[in-house]
């Protein structure tokens, strides 16, 4: 018998809110965090807008020592530590004092690439023959696992501490890995999440692929248009999301507030076959992933009240809707409500999955289904499959029992998690 | 450079890396960076780089390895300044 797993803490650093309260308010009000980024214009980017979390440098004093802040040039490390430590505190958990680490607590915190600004600095110094001037933190700021290492050290975790990486599936996969680790009885509490650097070195490669919108440089808040008839590419974003995932018995024993239960999920790959490629999904695999998640959660497709999609605002959105519709065998008005956080944050890449898992849990906890912005006219291919009423344009305040969340990534990888309102 | 001034400058350089503030209060020539100030050993390289910037000198690897105490550090700095 698998252990039951619940969510007891949340943390988020998103373009439209740098803590959970701000973010929850923002997604309910339809606040976009997309803005013009002057550095991108100066560097001749086609897409000169992005989603960027905004806070004052002094905010870091709550999370990093002064020595840790010296030479800190890893925005993903900042976002991840803020979100991670916020989630840990939100769960009412303590950090280890002197003596034993927390043997039953671990971290799975993913990223695509970390510390790109720091790496840039290092490359210039190395090429200039000044490797000896790099200082002691080039490695820890640029190693992918820098984020899990920082969090594991701050909390004092004695269980598994690692970083996963699976492109835009990373965050959702991290949560699922944490769930499985607890289900097997290997840990009681896991801090799960993901983070993504901001800046031209992360976003440049996507700009070069011509998959970012370039028509909205002067109207950034209208740029991210998931499911819309005139969607023309994803707006790059950044940030971090974090969830404290815990065995139900451990949460109950310490009297924790339970936000939601994770009743199942699946992670798979399309093998870059059957129409799948490095950059496109194998739809058969996507549908299989969704169906496997339902089986793992032991629910029927008609029990799903809402879907938080991957839905990036590229031409692939109609295909995603078709995959959901066929996997669930639901269409028209019978299709669950569906929404995309990316309409307000842009696509936060490796961080997207965890930020969107936070949004999904908030919808269950606070009884709302947030509205999609910039989708006044849904794509005609989508409207052939589902009724327009199932794409809320305004936030609907209602209790949901089950919400499915999926993320898909380059490399043809998929992850789907089934969240459920916690019922005693 | 006068030794007292040198000591003051060195104290300011190591201060941000110190994890035992009492050790910094009692800083003298015999102070050991790791034992008395509890500076993380990885940060010794940062101390050396900050010393280079402050005094406009370059510290070779052998000298850097010797810089574990205030006394040894001052000797290294004085030698490098004299060789400038």
From TrEMBL, chain A:
Q: What UniProt keywords are attached to this protein's entry?
A: Acyltransferase, Cytoplasm, Transferase
Identify the Pfam families for this entry: ketoacyl-synt, Ketoacyl-synt_C
> What Gene3D superfamilies does UniProt report for this protein, alphabetically?
3.40.47.10
Q: Which domain of life is it from?
A: Bacteria
Q: What CDD domains is this protein classified in?
A: KAS_I_II
| GO biological processes | fatty acid biosynthetic process
In its UniProt record, a GO molecular function of this protein is: 3-oxoacyl-[acyl-carrier-protein] synthase activity
Tell me the compartments it is located in.
Cytoplasm
- What's a GO cellular component annotated to this UniProt protein? cytosol
- Provide the Ketosynthase family 3 (KS3) domain boundaries: 2-421
Reaction(s) catalysed by this chain, per the record, are:
a fatty acyl-[ACP] + malonyl-[ACP] + H(+) = a 3-oxoacyl-[ACP] + holo-[ACP] + CO2; (3Z)-decenoyl-[ACP] + malonyl-[ACP] + H(+) = 3-oxo-(5Z)-dodecenoyl-[ACP] + holo-[ACP] + CO2
EC number per UniProt: 2.3.1.41
Mainly localized where? cytoplasm
SUPFAM superfamilies linked = Thiolase-like (SSF53901)
Q: Which family does it belong to?
A: Belongs to the thiolase-like superfamily. Beta-ketoacyl-ACP synthases family.
Quaternary context: Homodimer.
Q: What is this protein called?
A: 3-oxoacyl-[acyl-carrier-protein] synthase 1
Annotated source species: Aquimarina intermedia
TrEMBL record, chain B:
Q: Name one Pfam family in it.
A: PP-binding
Q: Which SUPFAM superfamilies match?
A: ACP-like (SSF47336)
- Residues forming the Carrier domain are 4-81
List the protein's name: Acyl carrier protein
The organism is Aquimarina intermedia
Q: Which Gene3D superfamilies match?
A: ACP-like
Top-level taxon: Bacteria
């Amino acid at each position: 018998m698998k252990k039951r797993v619940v969510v007891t803490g949340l943390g988020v650093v998103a373009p439209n809110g740098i803590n959970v309260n701000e973010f929850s308010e923002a997604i309910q009000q339809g606040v976009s965090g997309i803005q013009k980024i002057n550095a991108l214009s100066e560097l001749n980017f086609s897409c000169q807008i992005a989603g960027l979390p905004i806070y004052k440098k002094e905010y870091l004093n709550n999370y990093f020592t002064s020595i840790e802040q010296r030479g800190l040039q890893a925005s993903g490390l900042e976002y991840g530590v803020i979100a991670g430590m916020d989630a840990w505190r939100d769960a009412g958990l303590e950090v280890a004092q002197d003596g034993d680490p927390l043997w039953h607590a671990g971290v799975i915190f993913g990223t695509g690439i970390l510390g790109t600004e720091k790496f840039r600095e290092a490359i210039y110094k190395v090429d200039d023959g000044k490797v000896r001037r790099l200082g002691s933190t080039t490695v820890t700021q640029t190693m992918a696992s820098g984020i899990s290492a920082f969090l594991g050290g701050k909390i004092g975790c004695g269980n598994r501490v690692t970083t996963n990486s699976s492109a835009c599936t990373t965050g959702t996969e991290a949560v699922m890995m944490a769930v499985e680790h607890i289900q097997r009885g290997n840990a009681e509490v896991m801090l799960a999440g993901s983070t993504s650097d901001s800046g031209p070195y992360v976003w440049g490669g996507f700009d070069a692929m011509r998959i970012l919108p370039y028509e909205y440089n002067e109207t950034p808040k209208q740029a991210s248009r998931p499911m819309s008839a005139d969607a023309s590419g994803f707006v790059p974003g950044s940030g971090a999301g974090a969830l404290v995932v815990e065995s139900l018995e451990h949460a109950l024993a310490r009297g924790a507030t339970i936000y939601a239960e994770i009743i199942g999920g699946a992670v798979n790959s399309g093998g870059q076959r059957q129409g799948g490629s490095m950059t496109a999904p194998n739809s058969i695999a996507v549908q299989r992933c969704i169906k496997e998640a339902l089986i793992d959660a032991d629910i029927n497709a008609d029990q799903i009240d809402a879907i938080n999609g991957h839905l990036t605002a590229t031409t692939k959105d109609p295909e995603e809707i078709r995959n959901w519709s066929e996997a669930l065998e639901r269409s028209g008005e019978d299709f669950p409500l569906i929404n995309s956080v990316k309409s307000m944050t842009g696509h936060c890449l490796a961080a997207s999955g965890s930020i969107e898992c936070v949004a999904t849990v908030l919808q269950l906890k606070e009884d709302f289904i947030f509205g999609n912005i910039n989708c006044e006219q849904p794509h005609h291919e989508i409207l052939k499959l589902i009724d327009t009423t199932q794409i809320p344009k305004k936030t609907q305040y209602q209790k949901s029992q089950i919400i499915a969340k999926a993320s898909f990534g380059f490399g043809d990888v998929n992850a789907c998690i089934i969240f459920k309102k916690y019922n005693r | 450079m006068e030794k007292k001034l040198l000591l003051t400058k060195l104290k300011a350089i190591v201060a941000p890396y110190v994890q035992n503030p009492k050790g910094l209060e009692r800083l003298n020539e015999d102070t050991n960076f790791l034992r008395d100030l509890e500076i993380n050993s990885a940060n010794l390289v940062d101390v050396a780089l900050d010393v280079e910037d402050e005094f406009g000198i370059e510290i070779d690897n052998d000298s850097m390895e010797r810089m574990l105490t205030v006394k040894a550090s001052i000797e290294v700095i004085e030698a490098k300044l004299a060789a400038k």
